[in-house]
Amino acid sequence: MKKTQKAFLYSVALVLVLISISGSSALAQYKIDSTVQTTFFNPPAPIRQPGEFEPMQGVLIRYPFGITYTVIAEMAENITVTTIVASASEQSTVTSQYASHGVDLDHCTFLIAPTDTYWTRDYGPWFITNGNNEQGVVDFTYNRPRPNDDAIPGAYANDQGLPLYFMPLVHSGGNYMTDGQGIAISTTLTWEENPGYTHDQVNQMVHDYLGITTYHVVPDVNGDYIKHIDCWGKYLSPDTILIRQVPPSNSQYNEIEAAVGYFENQTSCYGTPYHVVRVYTPGGEPYTNSLILNNKVFVPIMGDQWDDDAIQSYQNAMPGYEILGFTGSWVSTDAIHCRAMGITDRYMLYIEHTPLLNQTYNTQGYDVQAKIHPYSGQNFIAGSPVVYYRTSDDQWHALPMQSLGDDQYKATIPPLPGESTVHYYIHAEDESGRSENHPYIGAPNAHTFTISGAPPNSPPEKPEKPIGTPSGKVKTTYTYSTQTTDPDGDNVSYMWDWGDGTTSEWLGPFNSGVTMSVNHSWSTKGTYQIRAKAKDTNGAESNWSDPFSVTMPQNNNYMFSFIENMKLILERWFPRLFLLLIHMRPGA
Q1: Which of 186, 379, 432, 544 is the most exposed place for a label (fewest CB within 10 A)?
Q2: Is residue 184 a contact partner of residue 217, using CB atoms and an 8 Å limit?
Q3: Which of 56, 117, 108 is nearest to 86 (CA)?
Q4: What HEC string does 167-203 produce?
């Protein structure tokens, strides 16, 4: 039996594991590996297994390679490439090859260990964070008779000084994906390869070792021998799954569409139905067998007419990411994802947040709450964490988050009138130099919700007639001011019409009722009628102000200029001064 091949290495431990599974779940489970000098017990709860789309510090590959130097060089631009080599001599060979192919050696490390194949995804370590807020490695029995490959998780854990936990399941990394929030997906191959366990026992095991609370075990739709989920599906984010698409004439069409229907009717960790996106694979192209490494997505392409469409599918589904296509020795069941294993950032700045759903108008605003934990142990930098939000096409506004204790933080987006659409994301930075967002990519794919039932939004009042220099010299800059108030108290931005055929951009936003000033110069002689209008944060615009006349070049009658300015000032301020004096009179 395949299971006993690895069980032999962990003989005493496996007996205890089997006893625990069948009877006492409280019994400590552990394994002893000849390459690891320490005995490691069950991971302390709570346990979380990060998703592929979370922060990665590196990637694990093996020499001889299954990917090109071009792919490796691209990986090494931003993260650490850890290469498994058989010996120090082989490490020297690879180092020389890396140097000659432009791979950044400063971003390269090596793990010296024997291997059988280059499918590091299938046999590589599974990373978790345990109840001690430390990273650990979960090992399992690799579903192939390749003992050297099977030993790699222990070798990696030993090399990195990480705790190692042996989960007594036969499994493969290509047939497993998780959302990072306790939901995972595999095909029924998992059940077929573990006939000694009931489905409930399998579910309990992935819960105890990986923190999985919902395990979707679904039929394989491809009908091929390997039955790996990464041959036809992929998590792109906690609530988005990519599934291959084929024409109706394809023999697997009904099975694939049934899988789409299944996931569209399942609930994501956000409490919403999954958003299922598609990539067209009429000839069995392995486009779903891609690799996400931080803000880059490595997509296998075949050099055929469907490559551009595949890249576009990823760009549509993952705005803000860099989508990169690479050719290689790909086949429908084996491409980039199979041949490279992301290494989760051991000291990630972790943000956990359930996005706001559509809201009913609330005079108290809209609370954005998140768990934020720096695994580096470093403090947040000043001003972090923060929520950025905007409505319509306005600029982003920052809201510092307040600590609630126990890694919980909150900020409140203010009440917004009208049928507003709000975009927001969470941003945090710590003193280790890490900078993370939720969603991962931040502003380009920000969370969105709409507000209904709000009072109708009112536009700002017409801005006051501008004041400033009524005449002057051409090519000399002068300052002009205006102000307005917004009935809803919204911030406002201003646009200026300079009377010379040009207008400014929207300037602001400014608080309602606050005077704003702007500079302008004219290049030719003439008399110009300048005016301003305002727009609130919901996009409602005011009428143009009354025009103010400016003459270039300046009028030589300086007394006239002085009188004109004084006249404008008195027109604007005398009524207010008069009212103030009335209120200040004795007995008022």
Answers
A1: 379
A2: no
A3: 117
A4: EEEEECHHHCEECCCCEEEEECHHHHCCCCCCHHHHH
> What angle is formed at CA 539 by the lines to CA 538 and CA 542, rounded to 5 degrees?
115
* Amino acid at residue number 160: Q
DSSP per position, 53-104: TS-EEEEEEESS-SS-HHHHHHHTTTSEEEEEESSHHHHHHHHHHHHHTT--
467-556: CATH class: mainly beta
What is the H or E stretch that residue 391 is in? strand 386-391
CA–CA dist 8, 17 (Å, integer)? 13
Residue 280: which of 264, 298, 304 has the closest Cα? 304
Task: Supply angle C-alpha 236, 239, 242, rounded to 5.
Answer: 40
- The CATH number given to 2-344 is 3.75.10.10
Per-residue pLDDT tens digits for 440-455: 999 999 999 999 887 7
CA dihedral 87, 93, 97, 100 (to 10 degrees): 140
Catalytic residues: 338
Characterize 148-180 residue by residue with b for buried, 16 or more Cβ atoms within 10 angstroms of its Cβ, and e for exposed: ebbbbbbbbbbbeebbbbbbbbbbbbbbbbbbb
* Interatomic CA distance for residues 548 and 496, integer angstroms: 12
Which helix (H) or strand (E) covers residue 443, if one does?
A: none
In the chain, the amino acid numbered 180 is: G
pTM: 0.78
CATH topology of domain 354-452: Immunoglobulin-like (2.60.40)
Residue where the block lists tokens 């300052």:
479
The share of the chain scoring above pLDDT 90, in percent, equals: 81
What are the residue ranges spanned by the domains of the chain?
2-344, 354-452, 467-556
Count of Cβ atoms closer than 10 Å to residue 580 Cβ: 10
**What's the rounded Cα separation, in Å, for the pair 382 and 401?**
11
126-156 residue pLDDT tens: 999 999 999 999 999 999 999 999 999 999 9
SS3 580: helix
pLDDT digits (tens, 9 = 90+) for 495-528: 999 999 999 999 999 999 999 999 999 999 999 9
Distances (CA, A) of 218 to 189, 215, 232, 532, 586: 9, 9, 12, 62, 85
